[in-house]
Amino acid sequence: MFKFKVIGTDGLARAGEFSTPHGVLRTPIFAPVGTQATVKSLTPTHLSELNAQLVLANTYHLFLRPGDEIVAKMGGLHKFMNWPNPILTDSGGFQVFSLAKTRKIDEDGVTFKSHIDGSTKRLTPEISIAIQENLGADIIMAFDECSDPTDYAYSTKALRRTHAWLERSAQAKTRPDQALFGIVQGGVFKDLREESARFVSSLDLPGHAIGGLSVGETKSDMYHTIEVVNTILPENKPRYLMGVGTPEDLIEGVLRGVDIFDCVLPTRLARHNSVMTRHGRLNLLNAAFAQDEKPIDQDCACYTCQNFSRAYLRHLINAREILASTLLSIHNLHTLIALAADLRRAILDGNLNQFTADALTNLKHKKEKP
Description:
There is one protein chain. The protein is of the alpha/beta class. It folds into two domains: about 5-265, Alpha-Beta Barrel (TIM Barrel), CATH 3.20.20; about 270-365, no CATH class. About 40% of the residues lie in helices and about 20% in strands. The chain contains 15 helices and 16 strands. The protein has an eight-stranded parallel barrel with strand order 4-5-6-10-11-12-13-14, surrounded by six helices. Strand 2 and strand 3 form a beta hairpin. Helix 11 packs antiparallel against helix 14. It starts with a strand and ends in a 6-residue tail after the last helix.
């Protein structure tokens, strides 16, 4: 059911096809994040028009509200959120471990306080898998422990738990129509990452994820860690880089063999008046845009750029109109989804080096200051 086929390579970069029950993912891809079973300010129609292939939903948040059992009774996430294409759910691990002041970790799992009502909740590998089976996503994640990427002692301890919890996650899984991905952890430490990549690979899961990055380490450390991990992870399985999503990071990740990306950044930036372009970011609250008739990006084919000026978008922001978030989110997501598609095309056409060199030059030498 879950098959990954590499149909083109250029160096470490791959163009592939990953078959799931709700469609084929043509990689590399960028996936919008729908934390509460919705990508903020956008409808499923918007996402389809953006050519989004995969949407993420958040296990932790949906466990707390409305509850995974309610989602199951409503027919699962695909029906609940009216999204017919593939869905990925995380394990809840990252969200739980970000609650440093209210959670307690033991070898069995984690006890924490709900951020909604303060009630005590419990997550273990078995509970996380049960929640994700109720939610019904195509791709589910093993319960893991994130750590401070620069703390070797903590990263070592977290790695041991992550590996033990991965085995328990695999044992707890019962649905054959869901692909379980294991998560490689280990901070920025080469020996820990190598150990984790070998262990995760040994379980012969349908795919693998690289977690614990873009959480405070340097860009050079992140890129080096991706290289270390992807020289070990098998070539016949998709590789998912969790929570990473700037144009530069997509380019650098694809060059190092990453297939799937996700990040909340595009919609978060949109809610804070900022837009991504292939030439850097712009803050549309800048007074220089008050009478600017140009679109955000004259080379962009998105709905926003084809129909609205910077001046109008700045007006919406100043007027605190909801439409501003929608239009800026459309543009930001289009920027990343289209970039991933262009990277795929460059791999298949055999001109990835030239494409990425030009793209990185544009990003490093911004044509217009924000």
